[in-house]
Inverse folding.
């Protein structure tokens, strides 16, 4: 069904959507750990996302590229799904990485898998959005590879998928209304925050959406190096939604028991409420 017919009398991210997001995250961790960028299991994870998102009704394409890393040149793969209203419409872009941090033994249940599953579940939720008022913007989902650095986050280590995706938008000369980064939003002890290197107007919109759906969101003191910043560097308005107070970050303890369906329901509800504003 064309995206112009997928809308919304009332936007909703249901309990069933949250359960699906959790199930996707669990399955990704179980079947594709580790999934370091440029590795065989990383490629397996890309195939898994393509299969699951396609089965959920999304039209997904691979965007393969090479990246020069401290460990040499590596093949990486972004996955992209597009929902078009019109060719000349503005775009809203949702971004989540799926890779794991090398050399840490980290399964990435929250750091990568949670929002990978959330994006797939959001795509499923789109199938149930019906109504008389069509969206006015196109929507893009991007699952990025190579967000995690090999050694330390620098201009030449980490965020390869986001850099490639942002450059692709530039090459296509797309009009970008907003880029929304999603990261570590399944934490069972959820605390959604926006780093100060997010776009000010988008932070206002997030806060308004959070108030409408009664979700707590705070502004962080300090910047966060994350995928959203790679889009901002090319001039696109971008905001990061992240739970950065996660004690298991980049450790072997980032396991599925530290994320929850309730947290994914909260995060999904916030994203859907934000989209109800941005897509109009």
């Amino acid at each position: 069904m064309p995206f112009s017919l997928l809308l919304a009398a009332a936007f909703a991210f249901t309990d069933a959507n949250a359960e699906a997001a959790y199930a996707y995250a669990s399955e990704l961790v179980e079947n594709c750990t580790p999934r370091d960028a440029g590795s065989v299991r990383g490629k397996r994870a890309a195939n898994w996302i393509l299969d699951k998102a396609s089965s959920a009704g999304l039209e997904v394409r691979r965007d393969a590229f090479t990246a020069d890393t401290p460990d040499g040149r590596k093949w990486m793969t972004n996955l992209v799904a597009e929902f078009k209203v019109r060719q000349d419409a503005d775009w809203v872009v949702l971004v989540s990485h799926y890779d794991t941090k090398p050399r840490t033994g980290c399964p990435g249940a929250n750091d990568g898998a949670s929002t990978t599953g959330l994006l797939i579940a959001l795509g499923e939720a789109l199938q149930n959005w019906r109504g008389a008022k069509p969206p006015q913007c196109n929507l893009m989902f991007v699952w990025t590879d190579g967000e995690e650095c090999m050694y330390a986050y620098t201009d030449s280590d980490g965020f390869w998928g986001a850099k490639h995706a942002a450059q692709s938008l530039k090459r296509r000369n797309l009009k970008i209304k907003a880029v929304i980064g999603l990261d570590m939003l399944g934490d069972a002890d959820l605390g959604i925050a926006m780093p100060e290197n997010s776009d000010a107007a988008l932070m206002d919109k997030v806060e308004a959406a959070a108030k409408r759906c009664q979700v707590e969101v705070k502004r962080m003191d300090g910047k966060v190096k994350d995928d959203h910043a790679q889009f901002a560097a090319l001039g696109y308005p971008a905001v990061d939604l992240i739970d950065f107070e996660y004690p298991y970050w980049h450790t072997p303890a980032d396991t599925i028991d530290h994320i929850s369906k309730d947290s994914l329901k909260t995060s999904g509800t916030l994203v859907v409420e934000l989209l109800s504003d941005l897509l109009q």
Observations:
- The two ends are 19 Å apart (CA to CA).
- The CA atoms of residues 60 and 81 lie 5 Å apart.
- The chain has a mean pLDDT of 94.
